[in-house]
Amino acid sequence: MSGLVVSGLVGVGGGWLDGGVSEIPDLDAGAVVWSHPEGDRDGRPLLVLLHGYGSHEQDLFGLVPFLPDAFTFAAVRAPLSPPFPTPGWSWFPIEGLYERDSETTTRAAERFLAWVDALGHDGPIGLLGFSQGAVIATQALRLRPDGFAFAVTLAGYADPGILPTDAALKELRPPVFWGRGARDEVIPAPLVEHTVAWLPEHVELSGRVYAGLAHSVSQDELDDVVAFLGKRLDDPAG
């Protein structure tokens, strides 16, 4: 797994690809990769994997063999097709990433929450997202602070908008792991700076910056994620 790279938010020509500000559609309920058949999911904690911009549901599913097998894993596909020639799928358009308001990010997270609700899963649910998927994981946790046991966010950020549910999140302080590369030049610096200040105020944060790592996932980071997930299994309350 040395030098592992997963797809995510992509900068092109020093700017951001323009996806427009169109309506976010519902997620495709059939575009999900499961680690266990439906009859074998009862009684197991669920970890939902959210891929990055221009990627697809199979991408993060490649991590499953390296993660604790006590979880059921579901890798879901984002609902938007990025503008040509970017392949794959996206959760929200990324043009004007820092300047625009949070409405589109919130709409995308609400579509994901509707997908979660339709599952009817009766056990703990955790989130693991990379890049744009990490943004959705964080936003979903903010919108529903009591709905998820924890979140793992890799190479992502917390949207700078204010949500009415942030106070409840700050009160509950669910565990969150945030990992990022010291050489990640994809996420704009103002968003990183905002997240550095925002996360410790609202969640029980475990974080690490990985020297030499760009916009990807390293073996050291994966090892830290496995340790974080193991703690969640040993002590679901914290």
Automatic annotation (TrEMBL):
InterPro entries, per database record? AB_hydrolase_fold, LYPA1-2/EST-like, PLipase/COase/thioEstase
Could you read off the lineage of the organism from its UniProt record?
Answer: Bacteria, Bacillati, Actinomycetota, Actinomycetes, Micrococcales
MF (Gene Ontology): hydrolase activity
Query: What protein is this chain from?
Result: Phospholipase/carboxylesterase
Q: Which family does it belong to?
A: Belongs to the AB hydrolase superfamily. AB hydrolase 2 family.
List, for all copies, the residue spans of the domain called Phospholipase/carboxylesterase/thioesterase.
41-231
Q: Which UniProt keywords apply?
A: Hydrolase
The chain's coiled-coil residues are none
